[in-house]
């Protein structure tokens, strides 16, 4: 069923192109917004407009949004390299390999943690949308490392609240280009969808509050190994914040990394690993902490740097 929306153009979008304004207001890609306008699903003050028209603050928009695409139903599918670190009746902690998402999503045809657990006979909590039951946090497909999944309904509720209230200790290691100055610091910058509407995220005024703490572990000639502690868990947060400081994660071409350096180090994805995860056990109320070693590709990249 289509979704009819009516509202004024916010002051902050004064002078923007209509397609860009629609994309920002409704979280769409620029292409999808342009298609809505071309198909006659957008009126400005009751009149059809062109996607390149500039909008005025306060102008009245009538927009017909198409129904959101339906996420695929999870199916049991073995995931090579998905390692169980810890499991009990309430939770399972896994070490996620590269090229695997947390749960099935629209447009993704590869493996997921949820489907891998199903294939292993693990029963997860039924809370949440059908395609992401038991999932309380996520890692990008090409970010490796630790994830906790809820098996019981109590664990799901408690862990979701813990992540929301920022009481979970999430530590990552990342190899970034150059040398951050200062060597230790905090990046406090709001994140929202990139204005280009191309799937990227960016530091954007008025975005969601996002806080990243970093500390240099080891410095090399052309790169630095950092420990990252997240206060918030925005999509692509580490990648966006490091790129915004002009020190993108090595191999992260989506956010401006140097492909020459990545090739020299043999890195085929962003050098980013969820190395440590700590939280209060949701039913036993004791602190638990888990660690994950670097995967082979990331370890090899460090070896190359240390030999230079």
Quick structural overview:
The protein contains 7 helices and 15 strands.
Key attributes of the depicted protein:
Pseudouridine synthase, PsdUridine_synth_cat_dom_sf, Structural Genomics Hypothetical 15.5 Kd Protein In mrcA-pckA Intergenic Region, Chain A, globular, alpha+beta, 21% helix, 7 helices, 308 residues
Structure description:
The protein has three domains: 3-65, Roll (Structural Genomics Hypothetical 15.5 Kd Protein In mrcA-pckA Intergenic Region, Chain A); 69-165, Pseudouridine synthase (2-Layer Sandwich), CATH 3.30.2350; 172-273 and 300-307, Pseudouridine synthase, CATH 3.30.2350.10. The strands form three sheets. Strands 5, 6, 7, 8, 9, 12, 13, 14 and 15 form a nine-stranded mixed beta sheet that branches. It is of the alpha+beta class and 308 residues long. A hairpin with a 3-residue loop joins strand 5 and strand 6 (91-96). The chain is built from seven helices and 15 strands. InterPro entries: PsdUridine_synth_cat_dom_sf (IPR020103), PsdUridine_synth_RluA-like_CS (IPR006224), PsdUridine_synth_RluC/D (IPR006225), PsdUridine_synth_RsuA/RluA (IPR006145), RluA_PseudoU_synthase (IPR050188), S4_RNA-bd (IPR002942), S4_RNA-bd_sf (IPR036986). Keywords: Isomerase, RNA-binding. Its EC number is 5.4.99.-.
């Amino acid at each position: 069923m289509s979704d009819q929306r009516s509202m004024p153009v916010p002051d902050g979008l004064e002078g923007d192109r209509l397609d860009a304004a629609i994309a920002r207001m409704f979280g769409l890609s620029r292409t999808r917004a342009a298609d809505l306008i071309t198909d006659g699903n957008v009126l400005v003050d009751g009149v059809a407009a062109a996607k390149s028209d500039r909008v005025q603050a306060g102008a009245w928009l009538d927009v017909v949004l198409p129904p959101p695409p339906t996420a695929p139903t999870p199916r049991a599918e073995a995931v090579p390299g998905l390692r169980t670190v810890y499991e009990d009746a309430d939770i399972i902690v896994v070490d996620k390999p590269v090229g695997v998402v947390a749960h099935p999503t629209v447009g993704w045809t590869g493996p997921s943690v949820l489907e891998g657990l199903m294939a292993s006979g693990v029963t997860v909590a039924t809370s949440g949308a059908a395609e992401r039951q038991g999932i309380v946090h996520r890692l990008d497909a090409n970010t490796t490392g630790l994830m906790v999944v809820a098996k019981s309904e109590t664990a799901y509720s408690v862990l979701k609240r813990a992540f929301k209230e920022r009481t979970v200790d999430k530590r990552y290691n990342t190899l970034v280009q150059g040398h951050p100055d200062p060597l230790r610091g905090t990046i406090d910058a709001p994140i929202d969808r990139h204005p280009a509407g191309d799937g990227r995220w960016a530091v954007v005024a008025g975005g969601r509050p996002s806080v990243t703490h970093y500390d240099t572990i080891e410095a090399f000639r052309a790169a630095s190994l950092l420990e990252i502690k997240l206060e918030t868990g925005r999509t692509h947060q580490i990648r966006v914040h490091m790129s915004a400081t002009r020190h993108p994660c090595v191999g992260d071409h989506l956010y401006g990394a140097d492909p020459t350096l990545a090739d020299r180090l043999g890195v085929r994805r962003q050098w980013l690993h969820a190395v440590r995860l700590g939280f209060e056990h949701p039913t036993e109320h004791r602190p638990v902490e888990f660690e994950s070693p670097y995967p082979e590709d990331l370890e090899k990249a460090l070896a190359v740097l240390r030999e230079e």
